[in-house]
Amino acid sequence: MNTSQLLCQNVHANRWENIAQNVRHEAKRSLLNYLAVGFAGAHDPTIEKLVKTYTKFSANQSASMIGRSERTDILNAAALNAMSANVFDYDDTHLRTVIHPTAPIAAALLAYAEVNQVSGRDFLQALILGMEVECRLGNAISPYHYNRGWHITSTCGALGAAIAVGWLLRLTPTQLNWALGGAANQACGIVETLGTMAKSLSVGNAARNGMLSALLAAQNFDGPLAPLDGVRGFLNVMGENPDLAGINAQFGEHWEMALNTYKPYPCGIVLNPVIEACLLLSARQDVAHNLKTRLQSVEVTGQKLLRDRTDRPGVQTGRESQVSAQHAVSVSLLSGRAGLAEFSDEAVQNPVNRALGEKVRFTVDDTLSIDAAKVTLHFLSEPSVTVFVEQARGSTGRPLTDQDLEQKFKELSTQADTGCDQEGLIRAVWEIESLDDAGALMTLVRQS
């Protein structure tokens, strides 16, 4: 077997009994976080524009949208719900690859399950397998893929969604391989779109195209024998010297998706330690007293990726601010907060925030991990003050607890003002494997 065929064989052979309890629980945590951020983005202007356009081409009204009353067909629902969950960059992150794993997979599965009855146990297993394939493929082509400019959530997410839905469809290994071929042929997304509405399109396409590829494969719509490892297959086109061996190594024993992390702030993951350092500085009385009158510069030290992705001065919109260190530093230092309101259009246009953001400077230190950063405030006629965050809150070393995720869900669903049964939804997620109909979750998240 080639790498592609062996992967599909491993997926097909996977059994629920062989999935450890901690892996199942992490999938539930991922699902709860996905629903939380789906609520947060449900009525963002980006999503409003997308819903207005996509629903014009809806084939039927069989599927729901998180936090909204409209209904559409399952392909459009998958796309829109994936985009809603990713629009604020508040979703989960697999740190090694910077993939946001759950949105493309869960959106596709929930849309499918709303129309085709799927047990909660099967839903959870499909979610685990889709996320696992997505993250393993990401490992194989990282860091080249993202550094080259491909939006890895969108590209690898399409293949993960194809595997997840394909597993629910009980595709044969050959059909799963065809589904990968269809998804690989539709995998797209470029980093240049970050900070704009355009970024959402490829995340939605990942869920939609992955599901479509699986549905086509179920009709024996064929594809190449080696969609991943062929000479011009996904891994060789999208990566440089891809790690083919790692894709199937210890499959079903070691779980990459169990390394998923969850964000305490609505912004690019590399900004988390920077924001945490700024919040700690903001809480100090000596710092607060000197910020507006004696601050000369703010030195941000971190990985080269931090500078490359977030050195964005003078941003004009809340969307852009999610990937701007200048804005994140200024707003968290001045307000002592870093929630949705702090990454809004209004916060971006605040002249005090903008003035402080102009004082941000970068120092690259590639010995630091992606979840570490140092922030130093240089003052006029005062000693400099430094805070070093070795592991940001929300990282694998300092993960958000189940209670943290429940609180995040309650806060974001309350802000969405949908009137959903919060406790009922939380309970349904934690007990999902006991549900006869996983698609019933969508009746709890749609706006009445």
Your description of this structure?
With 448 residues, the chain is α+β, with helices and mostly antiparallel strands. The protein is built from 22 helices and 8 strands. The chain has helices spanning 3-13, 21-41, 45-54, 74-86, 102-115, 120-141, 144-148, 152-168, 173-184, 198-217, 234-238, 245-248, 272-282, 285-294, 304-310, 318-321, 325-335, 345-349, 351-357, 402-416, 422-430, 441-445, and strands spanning 63-64, 71-72, 93-94, 260-261, 295-302, 360-364, 373-379, 382-389. It has a 4-stranded mixed β-sheet with strand order 6-5-7-8. Strands 1-2 form a two-stranded antiparallel ribbon. A two-stranded antiparallel ribbon has the order 3-4. α2 (21-41) packs across α6. The longest helix is centred in the N-terminal third of the chain and has 22 residues, at 120-141. It is globular, with a radius of gyration of 22 Å. 54% of the residues are buried. The model has no long low-confidence stretch (mean pLDDT 96).
Which parts are unreliable, with pLDDT below 50 for 5 consecutive residues or more?
none
Percent of residues in β-strands: 5-15%
Radius of gyration: 22 Å
Q: Span from first to last CA? A: 50 Å
Average pLDDT figure:
96
Q: Structural class, from secondary structure content?
A: alpha+beta
- Counted beta strands: 8
**H and E string:** HHHEEHEHHHHHHHHEHHEHHHHHEEEHHH
State the major sheet: 4 strands, mixed
Strand order of the largest sheet: 6-5-7-8
Backbone shape: globular
Enumerate how many helices there are, as a single number.
Answer: 22
Residue share in helices? 40-55%
